[in-house]
């Protein structure tokens, strides 16, 4: 039996995560913070990955369908049931009032979930496969849609883990996790403080045996299909933001700068599209 609670207003403190706290505030709400998962598919994948829900919020006219979808996904994957987790149901006109006030409240079912503690970089890399690991590093990728798309490509193309600098968009922001189609809960990932990354990140990767490949255009840039990249026992593929690109120190300290072969009239791709091509060529999908 579900714990379904029909609400007449949105005043209760239990609804703060949905209607009164922005995503940055949720991040710092309590250790290790909270986030909003959106849609039955994303919620189910988060549950399957071990995240714990504080509550769910659903629109009255669609809650039976959304709850059926969620129950179906959970049953198909033998995921732990919601038990007595509060499921708040609200009327559509209440949501329209909030939309007029500037809140983008509901696109399908929502769930306020507790974050999990992320390991530091050294501990995280110790969990990577011992055979031919391939990881991605996102340096200052600030667009949540790009982060979500990169996570989806990483999951599809067998990248073993993703490291994200703290000045990048949060993979658990609603837009990022929605674009990722919930794969943000499938791919192992962690944060690294941006200052620590710039000071010693490349050195640490080298110390742990990783060759580093920065996606950048330089005089010595090699193609992503260069055999030398495949010969690297451990490889970290480093991607930067679309405007400034990678930090100059990151590029100069990396073992390789790499590029995607393309028409001479075009010098770059969107970082999400570039990640998909690089992961296809450099990930482990071809050997599995």
TrEMBL record:
Fetch the InterPro entries from UniProt.
Alpha/beta_knot_MTases, Ribosomal_eL30-like_sf, rRNA_Methyltransferase, SpoU_MeTrfase, tRNA_m1G_MTases_N
Q: Which GO terms describe its molecular function?
A: methyltransferase activity
Entry keywords, A to Z: Methyltransferase, Transferase
GO biological process, alphabetically ordered: methylation
| Pfam family membership, one | SpoU_methylase
**Do you know which CDD domains this protein is assigned to?**
SpoU-like_rRNA-MTase (cd18095)
Domain (tRNA/rRNA methyltransferase SpoU type): residue spans on this chain:
135-279
Question: What's the protein name?
Answer: RNA methyltransferase
Annotated source species:
Limosilactobacillus coleohominis
